[in-house]
């Protein structure tokens, strides 16, 4: 009897270990320039409160970001953020020397906040498979240089040229040194179609031949307008809902939210923070995304526990752009973004209710309503009206009786100065 129980406990232990089901968020260190220690602690507490296990710290250069990295590790190691882990993600679209990369990893490898994958320090990247990095020698040199200093790593890079599912075997043969892989691609590829899991399925399967994690990116949106060649939007209208559902199907070892704080690409879920320099990204001003964290919290719990969470509170999270896609603006980079015709001119609403309810959506003369099912996520939308300067109004009705209601806080305007395809996100709670 005892032997059988021990055997079962052993199997349970192995099962838990084999399916990590962890959630990290991609964190842009270049946004930390003016960060105080308390900003780090607030961010970590806020991430922890929705079930995020840690941050993947995206580093562009060995400059002020190196000292910010020390601040981050110090904050995560404090008692106020127990169990909050960090790993480094080198942004290889910048120029890196292998010796700098090695000393940066070594400097933090012994921190109690360092995330380890099966006992090895996890290191990731953005890109690293183009130009002078596009060869295994670079990456094997990085790993052996670290090993010489007593640091064993699990390397799970986001090599971005590996997107086509048919290239998964070539990834393995070209890069014998990589242990795991991150699929960065969490938006449709310049098409008016929803993203599929084809890339995830192929690369997750390939990585079964390696010891490192398969990391799946989950993102809410993609829009940037920073220069003539950095001016695009990807079709993201309902992405934040269905991409999480894809993560529940795929069950990657790690979900990486892309991103916590990349304001310039409009996929941030962090609070707006006056210590952030948004530079030319004027489309971020006043465009709160924090209610998207409520959606993340629900799906994170489901992903980690394999159990659909019970909904106890009635909430509607909504998002919408400020201007119809056809509006001609004179500012910004003075051209509409690439793919400007993809997003629907609609206000989107995601309802999470305890028992069946009706959700009404009104904006100007435009009206829609849908049934929100109890204990499920339900989506609806209402088209933008033709009238100028309208604000959406939302109601949750139970058997025709209003339970909760509220307004958006940004008006939909028919005219504009700067293009803005970054949505405003709000919540009725
Ligand atoms: C994408 O999926 C949503 C549901 O999440 C659906 O309403 C929409 O029509 C789809 N878009 C396209 C272009 O197929
Ligand atoms: C903002 O845009 C101007 C004009 O295009 C450019 O000169 C400047 O470098 C940009 N600033 C930042 C922070 O990107």
**What oligomeric state is this?**
single chain
Shape: globular
Output the structural class.
alpha/beta
Number of helices: 9
Q: Give the uncertain stretches in residue-range form.
A: 5-18
Biggest beta-sheet profile: 9 strands, mixed
How many E strands? 19
Distance between the termini: 51 Å
Heterogens: 2-acetamido-2-deoxy-beta-D-glucopyranose
SSE order in H/E notation? HEHEHEHEEHEHEHEEEHEHEEEEEEEE
pLDDT averaged over residues: 94
Rg: 22 Å
Q: Provide the β-strand percentage band.
A: 25-35%
* Helix content, binned percent: 25-40%
Quick description:
This protein is an alpha/beta fold and 429 residues long. Helix content is 26%, strand content 25%. Strands 1, 2, 3, 4, 5, 6, 7, 8 and 11 form a 9-stranded mixed β-sheet that branches.
């Amino acid at each position: 009897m005892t032997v059988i129980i021990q055997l079962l406990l052993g199997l349970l232990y192995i099962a838990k270990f084999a399916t990590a089901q962890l959630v990290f968020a991609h964190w842009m260190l270049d946004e930390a320039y003016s960060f105080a220690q308390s900003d780090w602690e607030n961010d970590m507490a806020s991430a922890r409160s929705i079930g995020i296990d840690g941050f993947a710290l995206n580093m562009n250069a060995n400059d002020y970001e190196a000292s910010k990295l020390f601040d981050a590790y110090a904050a995560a190691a404090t008692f106020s953020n127990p169990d909050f882990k960090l790993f480094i993600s080198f942004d290889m679209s910048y120029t890196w020397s292998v010796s700098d990369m090695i000393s940066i990893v070594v400097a933090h490898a012994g921190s109690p906040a360092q995330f380890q994958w099966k006992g090895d320090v996890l290191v990731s990247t953005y890109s690293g498979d183009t130009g002078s990095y596009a060869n295994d020698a670079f990456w094997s040199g990085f790993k052996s240089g670290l090993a010489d200093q007593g640091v064993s790593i699990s390397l799970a890079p986001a090599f971005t040229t590996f997107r086509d599912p048919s290239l998964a075997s070539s990834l393995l043969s070209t890069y014998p040194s990589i242990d795991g892989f991150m699929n960065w691609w969490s938006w449709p590829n310049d098409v008016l179609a929803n993203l599929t899991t084809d890339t995830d399925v192929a690369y997750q399967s390939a990585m079964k031949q390696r010891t490192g994690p398969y990391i799946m990116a989950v993102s809410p949106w993609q829009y940037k307008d920073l220069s003539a060649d950095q001016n695009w939007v990807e079709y993201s209208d309902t992405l934040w809902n269905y991409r999480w559902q894809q993560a529940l199907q795929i069950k990657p070892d790690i979900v990486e939210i892309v991103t916590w704080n990349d304001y310039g690409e409009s996929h941030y879920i962090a609070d707006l923070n006056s210590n952030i320099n948004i530079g030319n990204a004027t489309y971020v001003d006043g465009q709160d995304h924090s209610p998207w964290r409520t959606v993340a919290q629900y799906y994170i719990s489901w992903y980690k526990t394999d159990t659909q969470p019970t909904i106890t509170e009635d909430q509607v999270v909504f998002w919408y752009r400020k201007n119809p896609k056809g509006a001609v603006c004179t500012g910004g980079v003075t051209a509409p973004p690439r793919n400007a015709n993809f997003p629907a001119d609609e206000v989107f609403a995601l309802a999470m209710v305890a028992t069946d309810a009706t959700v009404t959506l009104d904006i100007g003369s435009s009206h829609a309503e849908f049934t929100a099912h109890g204990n499920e996520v339900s989506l609806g939308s209402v088209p933008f009206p033709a009238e100028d300067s309208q604000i959406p109004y939302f109601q949750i009705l139970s058997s025709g009786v209003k339970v909760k209601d509220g307004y958006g806080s940004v008006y939909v305007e028919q005219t504009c100065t700067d293009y803005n395809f970054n949505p405003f996100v709000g919540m009725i709670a």
